[in-house]
Design brief:
There is one protein chain. This protein has 625 residues and is α/β, with parallel strands linked by helices. It has helices at residues 20-31, 37-47, 52-70, 78-85, 91-103, 109-120, 135-155, 161-192, 198-205, 227-247, 275-296, 310-321, 343-357, 371-381, 392-408, 422-432, 448-457, 472-487, 492-495, 503-506, 510-515, 547-557, 604-624; strands at 214-219, 258-261, 299-302, 332-337, 361-366, 413-418, 439-443, 463-469, 565-567, 583-588, 591-600. The strands form two sheets. An eight-stranded parallel barrel has the order 1-2-3-4-5-6-7-8, surrounded by six helices. A three-stranded mixed β-sheet has the order 9-11-10, with no helix packed on it. The longest helix is centred in the N-terminal third of the chain and has 32 residues, at 161-192.
């Protein structure tokens, strides 16, 4: 009998032979993937208890900052004014976001016109007219209102001269509407995207009004679907690094321009199930980009991905960080998403890496960009829990706790705080004390008024602008994601300018809010297993991107790998062994040398007997019918 192969192929190969300390840190990340939200949040709260004086300074600074920003409402940028007027709590805001996103995927004009006619006609554009302080937003509202009327007329079927004229105008007007909407998205994109290419983006960054900021450039694009896609993105990153390096005149790596790299753009199979191949190939690609960035004396940051790619990102980051040829370069950074329950464990792992390699690691701390996706994925897969917090305030607390850890260990980290939240800015400034060796970050096109006012008080603080670079085809998906993310009525970007909201509500302290909220997890977002309430339990799945769960699954399956099974027909009865079918050997299709069973084929007599029984049963059924 051949020896059965163990189910160790279920376990990602790069994650096996690791030093014990590294394994413990990695297991710590795994354990928190689906951990109890209440337990984690209580621990986070305990780790960031500010004294009464500190908390009052933070709260007062937050209120003052919001008041000063609101006083500058007339200076709002077009994009912020647009999101303020057409937020996602209004039907019109939802219509515009869905329409813009859908138009990108519609290849023909006829279908685009029908979509415009369907979506614009029913919205109440008049209710928004004149409410914005932005002339451009009001002009846009007039256009949308008139467009809605034209399309509405064109959709009516009453027989009248007026409606006939309306239909005629509609037929001639819808192509113009389609063109106008796409043009509007391009105009808005100019507010959100730094340039169509890196040359244009750098030129814009060097203009006088922008010189006070540092910049991190991001080459726009979706995840690579093919090897040619990945190669094209790799070449784009190479060219951008070379161009930025030629234009940069900074000696300090932390103040120099940087580039953000999405690993999913560099490999078409960037998924945990392909980790053996992915880690090897992506480590080589990232290493090449890192060496180029080192030569050009700029920094390179690995951008955020979904939770099921977190360990992959850390594996690849670790492999490049340990490259001895990069020992004197502290430019390799990584993004940590505070809405992940694993964020604290990730920081622990990065601390260990910094100590082991002697690097000071730039860490960009963000709230998180894939919340809806993470929640829905966990529900569909039937996971035991969510990888993210279910309340925004819980994420805010996690962000503060992570910020404190980064600031408390600046020998290991160069902290970078990406936020558009006044309270977050205030609490980070308080935790930083008098030291200035950290930076804030904001999105290009957003938060300029907020940081302008913040730095009038916190003199000497610096801010880096996250600056997307790309053409219209790449721009629109990014733009829609940002509008959806920041246009929601719970977003601070939206709330800070909403004069109808009391200042105290906008300046609310998340530490105090979470401490006084029961239950800690959101009651309207049940665990995946309870998705259908009392009606039934959701089917359970296995998180194949969690190493600990995979090890458990392999262990549960192992007893079935040790035996060699005897398989016989289920429906046939063996009446005559002399005429029985022959015996064959069944092998594992993944490992042809592995024999898993001895299979006895059904004999002709058994087959005939089974057919006769089936005919008899069918006859009885017909008689009953």
């Amino acid at each position: 009998m051949s020896k059965a192969r163990k189910f160790d192929f279920l376990i990602a190969e790069p994650l096996q032979a690791k030093p014990s300390e590294s394994r413990a840190l990695r297991d710590g990340i795994d354990r928190l993937y689906h951990a109890d939200e209440s337990e984690i949040v209580m621990q986070l709260l305990a780790s960031v208890q500010l004294d009464v004086a500190s908390r009052e300074r933070v709260n007062q600074a937050t209120r003052d900052l919001i008041s000063r920003v609101r006083a500058r409402r007339h200076e709002q940028g077009v994009l912020e004014a647009f999101m303020q007027e057409y937020d996602l709590s209004s039907e019109e805001g939802v219509v515009l976001m869905c329409l813009a996103e859908a138009l990108l995927r519609i290849p023909d004009d006829d279908t685009a016109e029908k979509l415009i006619a369907d979506k614009l006609a029913g919205a109440d554009w008049e209710s928004h007219l004149g409410l914005s302080s932005s002339i451009l937003v009001n002009a846009g509202t007039w256009g949308l209102m008139l467009t809605g009327r034209l399309v509405q007329l064109g959709s009516k079927t009453k027989k009248s001269i007026g409606n006939s004229i309306g239909r005629l105008v509609s037929r001639s007007g819808e192509p113009m509407v389609r063109t106008a909407i796409r043009q509007a998205m391009k105009i808005m994109g100019f507010q959100f995207v730094m340039g169509r290419n890196i040359e244009e983006a750098m030129e814009r960054a060097e203009k006088k009004k922008n010189r006070g900021y540092r910049y991190s450039f991001d080459m726009l694009g979706e995840a690579a679907l093919t090897a040619p896609d990945a190669e094209r993105y790799f070449e784009a990153y190479q060219s951008a690094i070379e161009f930025i390096g030629r234009r940069s005149n900074q000696d300090d790596i932390f103040s120099a321009p940087s580039i953000s790299v999405k690993l999913s753009a560099l490999h078409p199979r960037y998924e945990f199930s392909q980790s053996g191949r992915v880690v090897k190939e992506l480590t080589a690609k990232l290493s090449a980009l890192a060496h180029l960035a080192k030569d050009e004396q700029i920094a390179l940051t690995i951008d955020a991905e979904e939770a099921d790619r977190l360990l992959l990102s850390l594996d690849i980051f670790t492999g490049v960080l340990k490259d001895r040829d990069l020992a004197v370069w502290d430019g390799l950074g990584i993004v940590v998403q505070a809405y992940h329950k694993m964020a604290g464990a990730v920081i622990s792992m990065l601390e260990s890496l910094a100590e082991e390699t002697g690097h000071r690691i730039p860490v960009r701390l963000v709230k998180g960009a894939y919340w809806d996706t993470e929640i829905k994925h966990a529900q569909v897969e039937g996971f035991p829990g969510y990888p993210v917090f279910t309340r925004k305030a819980n994420t805010d607390v996690a962000y503060i706790a992570c910020a404190k850890r980064l600031l408390d260990n600046r020998q290991a980290f160069y902290p970078q705080f990406a936020t558009h939240n006044a309270h977050t800015i205030a609490v980070v400034s308080e935790l930083a004390g008098g030291r200035l060796d950290f930076e804030f970050q904001r999105l290009h096109g957003m938060g300029e008024d907020l940081y302008s006012e913040a730095f009038k008080v916190n003199k000497g603080h610096t801010c880096r602008v996250y600056a997307p670079v790309g053409n219209h085809e790449d721009l629109l998906p990014y733009l829609v994601r940002r509008l959806l993310e920041n246009g929601a009525n719970t977003s601070f970007v939206n709330r800070i300018m909403d004069g109808k909201l009391p200042l105290e509500e906008v300046a609310e302290d998340p530490l105090e809010k979470v401490a006084n909220t029961t239950p800690v997890a959101h009651p309207s977002i049940p665990l995946p297993v309870r998705l259908y309430g009392d009606e039934r339990q959701n089917s359970r799945g296995v998180n194949l991107a969690n190493h600990s769960l995979l090890c458990g699954l392999a262990g549960d399956m192992q007893p079935f790998a040790r035996g060699r099974y005897g398989v016989e027909p289920l429906l046939a009865t063996r009446t005559d062994t002399s005429t029985a079918g022959g015996t064959t050997v069944d092998t594992n299709p993944s490992f042809p040398s592995e024999v898993v069973a001895d299979v006895r084929d059904t004999s002709e007599e058994e087959t005939n007997t089974a057919i006769a029984v089936a005919r008899e049963f069918a006859g009885r059924w017909d008689a009953v019918g």
